Amino acid sequence: MLRGLVTEHGQARRHEARLLRAGNPALWTLLTAGRLLGPLVRLPRLGWVVTDPVLARRILNDPAFSMVGEGGVGDLWGQLFGPDFASFFAGARHAELRSLARDLFTEDSARLLVDRVQGPHHARLRARLAAGEEVDLAAVVRTTSAYTVADLLGVAVSDDDAALALFASAERLAALALGTQASTALAPEVIAKAGALVESITGGVGQAYRTGGPDTILGRCRDLDLGLDLAKGLTTLLVIAGTETGASSLTRTVALLHDTGQQHRLLADPALTANAVREGLRVTTPAPVIGRHIARDTEIAGRRLRRDGRVMMLTYVADNKAGPFDITRAYVPETRQLWFGAGRHLCLGAAVARVQLTRLLEALTTDGRPWRVVSRAPARQVLVPTYESLRIRTA
Ligand code: HEM
């Protein structure tokens, strides 16, 4: 029994390691080394690295660390959309922007959104599996994630091919940030490539900005008179933030449940779904690293961190310290929900991410039949490690 458990966890770990390595070999090396590092260390070229969940959350809550400036993701966005856009990532403008859309991201709003947009896709998925069909779950969740974010924005997506194209452009744009571990300064040719991808992501923004209703993000951008350029920047940000991470958590959690054999526990006791969702998010941590710029000298855990340096929180390492995927594991207070970040920039789409994972697991378990992974392939050269394909079939 114990031997079986060890083997199943080993298999799940190997599949996860393969995903991380295929997506970004440099990141995989960093995360593997990170498991052996202390809570806060300084590495040549990379700057400060944090592996402890409590310290990571402290830093994310500390205004001495900023998203804007070398090392923070706001620095990348500023290079694509200009300094005015970068100012959205800090201070009063950031708070104003979050409050613009807060009510669209509550638990209730997330349930309504996911049920309306993804419900028909989940019904179709159940029917296909019940008919004995083999389904590529990775393609299904790429489609549903893109439709969901487009719906929030108020952008029309004509069909599944258009949804997949939106997802692919976002994935390619995010992949341009590969290799920014040592510096967030982008080369001019990277900025040019990014411009073309932004155009394809924001093709429908003009129309949505003019006509979007009050319950769409672009409609609200118009009411605030943000202007089309900033609205395009926000659209790109939301499409990047809301598609890949969600899709990654969905397929990887389904694979983890299969590889560890814990789908059988879940099928026997559906009340474990909330735990399975939390464990899936914890173990996969789809945003495996969070970076910050050090805006002023500060002391953390007895170490002096100098202004203008950078800090990388290895959230994947920090979250996985609690142990392997286990759907009977109780809430881990040290980790809380670090996979969604913490502090001012805590993921705005956290409820959407939780609800869509819940609904997918419900769709897979309502028939009471276990699923089998028939074949799988990792996505290569992507910012968020994920499955390119995950073909499943029910028994
Ligand atoms: C499992 C899925 C998801 C994960 C793991 C995730 C993770 C994160 C993390 C770690 C951050 C903080 C980044 C930082 O502090 O530098 C973040 C921010 C954000 N996320 Fe998510 N996210 C997910 C899904 C979504 C979805 C579905 C949406 C929208 C529909 C979304 C929208 C956002 C936005 C707008 C921010 C920026 C918040 C701010 O800067 O104030 N996310 N997410």
From TrEMBL:
One of its GO terms (molecular function) is iron ion binding. Keywords: Heme, Iron, Metal-binding, Monooxygenase, Oxidoreductase. The keyword Oxidoreductase applies. InterPro entries: Cyt_P450, Cyt_P450_B, Cyt_P450_CS, Cyt_P450_sf. Belongs to the cytochrome P450 family. This is Cytochrome P450. It comes from Catellatospora citrea.
